[in-house]
Design goal:
heterodimer; A: mainly alpha; B: about 325 residues; alpha/beta; 8-stranded mixed sheet; about 35% helix; binds adenosine-5'-triphosphate; binds iron/sulfur cluster; binds magnesium ion
Chain lengths: ~325, ~325
């Protein structure tokens, strides 16, 4: 187990390198520079480029990023908050914490609502309830996130004025409702569909018949025997859910003006604040990779047939 | 007194599946009784209703299957009148069942021990964990699993097919049921393992005094373990007799065909199998006469219009075929 985790961590370093490289070269392939404004003269731009090392060849710049990342140094912001260390921007202005909080709640909502809904649909298959849930979840997986976010915003904030938009104050829980719904709705629906399918699959397995032949109660058959087996495919999907919630936060935070990492990332891309782009990419990728490792370990706990070490063979 | 000897009595049991295409009479009026400590074989082609008949005893009929007539009496109690909860308590406790495919019949995510102990705890809420565990280990040892203390903590995928079937048997017998229904318990196993499992079942049957309903395609297996045999065809028992009587003195044309089509272990050339010609009837549209009529070499006029009644051939040997009545009629006329 320990050996497996070590191996996975090593592989993660490779993955991170690739992600950083792709981000770096794509970022530089896009024309423009953080220092171009209407007023800036070519001399000023050249001076700024020289100051932050942007005049060096790309490969040297990339190497410099890696070297400073190894020292835990993310550099300073080039534009958005010029001169402020990126570490401070990411971690000491509440952005990371806010986004993590939103993301975790959205993940929890997806799991805590999606999985039971799937069980309910499976248990009542063929009834009106199952039909109703199928319609809702099908719509849910068909609506793009930004459309849902905009719809919610227009309906509940602008028209009905039931829910506040975020404007500075983050104290009230109401503020989080729409962003969380937008972030998690797709996954609630998807997990519910997935759970329903795999639950129905599990219920038709021979071992369920064995359990019934033993005289196990219906409740225990569903919860003990069917659910745990049907969660196996569901857990594999949690990894992509986490990645999806993180990318979803870019849109959702921008739509609802949530001052989190997602919104800041989008702004930094538009502003070509290279150091912020690189650092945010690094932090979010590391997070996704780490969560995937956690998911794989959870997978192993639920399904004893998986031995983590042999999966590497 | 006589009633006390009967463990289970089935009378004119009818089971149908109400499919969109129509009513499938999977079991169409079968009757038999089974005493304590008795082993009955049920043989017949695929689709003859062997499993359906067994599932209806234990209350595990799948939708859209329903018992449409007859009675099942177990130790004097009418099983068909049981509530679902009574039926649940009955299952696994008084009657338990083992199935064909041991590879898929155990839950892959729980240990063997967990599943064995569960069989105990669902019927006895007073039993402690330690007691249940001790009993599970004892049962595993009984079915010939070495190192049971360690094995009990393993998962099904760490067991071979034969061992899983042993574990299934241990699980089925852990509550000391009066009746064990074995639905082709050896069919999915290698021949050598089949023999071992059969030997084990024979031994345990003697030790625990369990009655067994043993469902199989294989008449060789029947000869090994059974006291009596019911031969099923298209939802009916066509012939029933003590095991020796059936092998040495088969009366029904279908039984004769079945015996001729079995590979014999003592014969050198197994190619000489004579399969019964024709295909099983369509249960959606059964013939008005004898179900076996379309495939029977001895088919007569009356066979096509009327279902044959049972002829009592003495000593519990019965056979449903018009031939017996022709003989009787012939004898009377002579
Ligand atoms: N779930 C079901 N839905 C509809 N019909 C069914 C169902 N289960 C069984 N049947 C019908 O009942 C008949 C008897 O099936 P059964 O499983 O008892 O056969 P069997 O004798 O056990 O055969 P096998 O040797 O293949 O196990 C089948 O021919 C089929 O038409
Ligand atoms: S009743 Fe007639 S058709 Fe049926 S088995 Fe006997 S001889 Fe054959
Ligand atoms: Mg069967």
């Amino acid at each position: 187990m320990l050996w497996y985790i070590l191996k996975r961590l090593l592989a993660s370093v490779g993955t991170l390198l690739v992600v950083l490289a792709i981000t770096f070269f794509l970022m530089n392939a896009v024309p423009g520079s953080p220092f171009i404004t209407e007023k800036s003269t070519p001399e000023q731009i050249a001076a700024a480029n020289a100051k932050y090392g942007l005049d060096k060849p790309l490969i040297v710049q990339f190497k410099n990023y890696l070297v400073s990342y190894c020292h835990g140094d993310f550099g300073v912001s080039l534009k958005m908050q010029e001169g402020t260390p990126v570490t401070d921007i990411l971690f000491h202005q509440g952005k990371f914490q806010l986004s993590i909080k939103l993301g975790l709640i959205a993940l929890l909502v997806a799991v805590i609502i999606g999985i039971p809904l799937g069980c309910i649909a499976a248990y009542n298959r063929g009834t009106w309830l199952d039909g109703f849930l199928r319609v809702v979840t099908t719509i849910g997986v068909a609506i793009p996130g930004f459309v849902l976010a905009t719809l919610l915003l227009v309906t509940f904030a602008v028209k009905l004025q039931w829910l506040p938009t975020i404007s500075g104050s983050l104290d009230s829980f109401n503020v989080y409702v729409m962003p969380i719904v937008s972030l998690s709705f797709y996954y609630v629906c998807y997990l519910s569909k997935l759970t329903r399918t795999s639950m129905l699959d599990a219920i038709n397995q021979d071992y369920i018949r064995t359990a019934r032949a033993k005289g196990v109660t219906t409740k225990s058959i569903v919860i003990k025997h069917a659910l745990r087996n049907s969660l196996i495919p569901v857990i594999t999907y949690i990894g992509p859910v986490i990645a999806g919630i993180i990318t979803g936060s870019f849109v959702v935070e921008s739509t609802f003006s949530v001052p989190g990492l997602g919104k800041y990332f989008v702004q930094s891309v538009l502003a070509r604040d290279y150091t912020v782009i690189m650092a945010t990419t690094f932090v979010l990728s590391a997070l996704v990779i780490f969560m995937n490792l956690v998911v794989d370990i959870a997978y192993k706990i639920v399904d004893p047939r998986i031995t983590l070490s042999s999966r590497e063979d | 007194m006589e009633d006390n000897k009967k463990l289970i009595e089935i009378k004119d049991l009818k089971v149908s599946f109400f499919t969109p295409a129509g009513e499938v009479k999977a079991v169409d009026g079968i009757s038999y009784e089974l005493g304590y400590n008795e082993v009955m074989g049920v043989v017949g082609e695929s689709g003859s209703g062997k499993s359906v008949e067994a599932y209806s005893i234990i209350g595990l009929l799948q939708n859209p299957g329903k018992v449409t007539g007859g009675s099942i009496t177990f130790e004097g109690e009418d099983l068909l009148a049981y509530t679902p909860e009574q039926m649940r308590q009955f299952r696994g406790n008084k009657v338990s069942m083992i199935f064909q495919n041991p590879m898929t019949c155990l839950n892959p995510v729980y240990t063997i021990g967990n599943q064995l102990m569960e069989a105990l705890t669902v019927h006895d809420d007073k039993i402690t964990k330690e007691e249940a565990r001790a009993r599970a280990i004892e049962m595993l040892e009984k079915v010939g699993i070495n190192n049971a203390e360690k094995r009990i903590n393993q998962y099904p995928h760490e067991f071979s097919g034969g061992m899983r079937q042993r574990a299934m048997i241990a699980m089925a017998l852990i509550c000391r049921p009066k009746l064990l229904i074995a639905d082709e318990p050896t069919t999915a196993l290698d021949v050598s393992i089949q023999a071992q499992i059969l030997e084990l079942m024979k031994e345990l049957q003697k030790k625990e005094n369990t009655s067994i309903i043993f469902i199989t395609h294989n008449l060789g297996v029947v000869a090994e373990i059974c006291d009596k045999v019911s031969v099923m065809y298209a939802g009916r028992i066509v012939e029933q007799a003590g095991v020796e009587e059936l092998f040495y003195n088969p009366q029904h044309p279908y039984t004769k065909g079945l015996l001729a089509s079995q590979p014999r272990l003592d014969e050198e050339e197994p190619e000489r199998l004579i399969p019964i010609e024709g295909t099983p009837i369509d249960l959606l549209n059964p013939p008005t006469g004898c179900n076996f009529g379309p495939r029977c070499k001895n088919c007569m006029k009356i066979c096509l219009t009327k279902k044959p009644p049972y002829a009592d051939l003495g000593d519990g040997h019965i056979s449903a075929c018009w031939l017996h009545f022709k003989d009787l009629k012939g004898k009377k006329e002579e």
